[in-house]
């Protein structure tokens, strides 16, 4: 109502806005009023910070003393003194562990659950449930599951005569366990996209393939996988972008340890900015991570576009 | 071992002799199928179930008993302790308040922006929409440090405002999601209403919102789950105990009482159970909306 009255009060000014075709002044003003809150949000909390982070990455600053211009030296120093190289490798290791297994599990679940047999619907729902689970709370649960003596994992292993490791304080096993936590959380979520993709493939494609004498495995490789390519691209791109920014589970499960075996980039940024108050270095790390994510995303699009794509008529 | 080995070859020729051999084949396959389903169910349910068992046991029972044994008798002491001694009422209250404000604002303001982009004409519309799309690709980690600097300079650190402000004015993703939905509403509906003299706010509230219930519920659920589970940003901007949210409280409890599994698991359940309830109520909708967001993206 208030918007309507304010629009009416603008009537005398109409002449000015009338220069723009198909828009009249009152409606233009209403449109901007409707847009204003989200526009302020986008500019203040996204556009401005992106510009700021580039600027800050060229300075030395601890939030208190005056800011000092240092050019590109932060970009060198983070690799020499702040373990940025290690963080990038650790993060890449996490992504490489996480994404292929998560995608394979999601696709496997979709293939198993893509039918109308009794109970399938319920299991689908159960698979998606972890998507809502609070990552920090789940990390605590996994800490317990993988604890050396009281954890169920090592108790089960003890039953078959294996002495399990101290999973999270062992440099070889810590990252795989963190990756497992993430796979558990998002496999069911990604399964939904594969299910939608599978259901979009016409049955006639499989009938034609089997008439040509293709086995089930050949049908999967020659029909299912190529036609799932758009779904695959979506699942991979969103998964990779998320994985490069992993924080919650690492913070609670390993805090970057043992040593710096799980110090992912986001944790390094957190420590540099909010424990060390070295804003310039942390900003440079953010910019580098952004560029890495961008490059990997572009590479994925390139790869998928280069391969032949199939259109379902 | 010996008996099963001798039985197996005995049953196989019989199965082959009887005509409906494929039916027995499908029988085996069905059994295998349901075994796989059972394993899947156990993998996804067990973490919840065993945590619930443990949260109702005293620490001594957790350390001495098998995790799969239900608590006997169940005790509420762990929950009493975290709520009365470790401030979980406060954390729960903070999380609820911040999440409700974040959700209400984000959905309302994104909806308004989405309507303007989808069904109104104004100068600069396409350029502005392009800005929204571009910011959609900015990862959270990039804005974290400068946002902290902004908040620290405006004196907003360590306030409730700091926790929800970056998300409450609407997000480009929510705007985009709803805009795509509004584009499917026939233009003629709005044109007719305008000719009848309806104001834009009336059209939005009385025509667009009722038709768009599915996407509004989707945006609401996504915002709520995001707010509830958010950890890194609240961790950075709050340091006084009275302002902290559940996720930060759980992480602190875990680092202070590393092996007091009874307490930390009870604390985790305070965050997990409401999400399970939310899922139980809206499960169909959540499943549909995930597919919806995937297609629209």
Task: Please provide a written account of the structure.
The complex is a heterodimer of chains A (313) and B (297). Chain A is an all-alpha fold. Chain A folds into two domains: 2-56; 82-306, Orthogonal Bundle (MetI-like fold). Chain A contains 15 helices and two strands. Chain A has a two-stranded antiparallel ribbon with strand order 1-2. In chain A, helix 5 packs antiparallel against helix 12 and helix 12 packs antiparallel against helix 15. The longest helix of chain A is centred in the first third of the chain and has 32 residues, at 25-56. Residues 1-23 of chain A have low confidence and may be disordered. With 297 residues, chain B is mostly helical. Chain B has two domains: 21-75, no CATH class; 80-296, MetI-like fold (Orthogonal Bundle). Chain B contains 15 helices and no strands. Chain B is globular. The N and C termini of chain B lie far apart (56 Å). Residues 1-21 of chain B have low confidence and may be disordered. Chains A and B meet through helix 1, helix 3, helix 6, helix 7 and helix 9 of A and helix 2, helix 5, helix 6, helix 7 and helix 8 of B.
- Helix-and-strand structural type of chain B: mainly alpha
Q: In whole angstroms, how far apart are the ends of chain A?
A: 48 Å
**How much helicity do the residues of chain A have?**
55-70%
The description of the largest β-sheet of chain B is: none
Q: Estimate what percentage of residues of chain A fall within beta strands.
A: under 5%
Distance between the termini of chain B: 56 Å
Under the CATH scheme, the architecture of the largest domain in chain B is Orthogonal Bundle
* Main interface: chain pair and counts: A-B, 92 and 94 residues
The CATH class of the largest domain in chain A, by name, is Mainly Alpha
CATH class categorisation of the largest domain in chain B: Mainly Alpha
CATH topology type of the largest domain in chain B: MetI-like fold
Shape of chain A: globular
Spatial strand order of the main sheet of chain A? 1-2
> Beta-sheet strand percentage of chain B?
under 5%
Q: On the 0-100 scale, what is the average pLDDT of chain A?
A: 88
Kindly give the count of domains of chain B: 2
Q: Which second-level CATH architecture of the largest domain in chain A applies?
A: Orthogonal Bundle
